[in-house]
Amino acid sequence: MTPLLSCGQAARLDAATREGAAVPALVLMEDASLRMWDALAPIAERERGRSARGNGPLVAICGSGSNAGDALAMLRRARFEGLDSLAAILAKEDLGESASIFAASLRALGVPLLSWGKQEGECRKALGSASLILDGVSGTGLSGALREPLASLVAAANESGASIASIDLPSGLTDDGAKGAVARAAWTLSIEPRKACLYFPSSRASCGEIIPVPGPFPADSPVEADARLLDGGDLASLAPRSAAHAHKGARGRAAVFAGSIGTSGAACLASRSCLAAGSGLSALFASKEVLPLVAPALDAVMVKPEPEDFAAFDAEAWDALLVGPGWGRSESRRAALASLLEKGRPIVIDADAIHLLRELRGSGSRPSCPMILTPHPGEFESLTGVSAQEALRAPSGVLRKAAAEFGAVIVLKSHVTWIASPSGELAVWDGMESGLGTAGSGDVLAGLAAGLLSRASAAARSAGRKASTAEAFAAAQAAVVSHGLAGRAARAGRGWFEAGAIAEEAARILGA
User: What is the topology classification, in CATH, of domain 232-511?
Assistant: First the structure.
């Protein structure tokens, strides 16, 4: 897992390096700029070669402070390496001490430095002919929305038609997301440790390809991380292991409560996905109306009539429960969910059951079992009252609060998925796979989470203990990662695909 820092944490790391290692800010800026230029140089060369603007200039747009200094230092490095079609546009006359030193160097080298306030026409002409724009308008020190003249300079860069490479993060992006103008980058040269706001769902498209750049910090620097970025290599440590001699009961038993007239497909996908996650046994408990519809479609899944009295349901026979996909939201369903929660078994709550959970919230009772909630942004809004727009703009704070309030692991599903534990841990999956935006994809994710949770619960049972919330957090992360990898594999091998293909690919990935 890769640590992700808030902008405040990044500022503290920078200050600690300057003070602890007695490294002047100018030296850190020089080091960072050289590393970023090494990452940008091949991109700049490629853009000059394929741009319709031919050998248009590399144009840096600058505010003040560190990001402006980085951009100007990168232009100087480009000039030293033989590039002569360069320009910088300055939004402010007061660049700050370090950036002013780099600006003086560029003037001495004959690189044009244009003033956005005094030479706007020439600035727009330079942007309009640029083969590439280097965005150094604002960085981690920004608070709130970009103000003038920075906002209009970023807007002009966006409107120019040239590709933009942003330094560290697109200008306008902060720990609170983007509240105004934000640079629309094709690439973000992200100094390690990366910033968590790069992965806020609402802003992710503005970051383009995020290119990690080794940071100029000591290798043993203590890193205070706001979140952790997941990758495929984390799956081995997150997914439960099954012994070679494990039988179906030892691999976990998942009970699924899902489906209604018109949504029986959700029940089939969810229950099959429990098996794809490695559960030894999956059973779908269906209403009498739905049972004859799903039974012929499910051969490896046991199909049972749902209990007439949910309070009498023997939950101890199951290692994990999944409730909600296509289930309906009637009063009887709300009472059934309340009964299932009282059983104290590890549980995944999805779709309709999330809306029902909101209605039960006022009862004052709090389940003592490990619980995973898998809302999309609209369901998160229904659950918490936090608007979908706000949750996608800056998920870290609202997600932590909700996970603590519900005592549950919460998976906020989107093209970038954020996962929170009740203790405040955050994990992020940079999905960015439009193939997963297909009907039933969420049902598969819920089934994978329930299957993985059942396996963790079975392992705990065999060790004479109960599954923990930490194991539920690991299961949720493993479900999201395997789901994401499966979507990529299905897209690469099949083109567009139906949700069942996600479960098939996930079974292959998790089984390996």
Answer: UDP-N-acetylmuramoyl-L-alanine:D-glutamate ligase (3.40.1190)
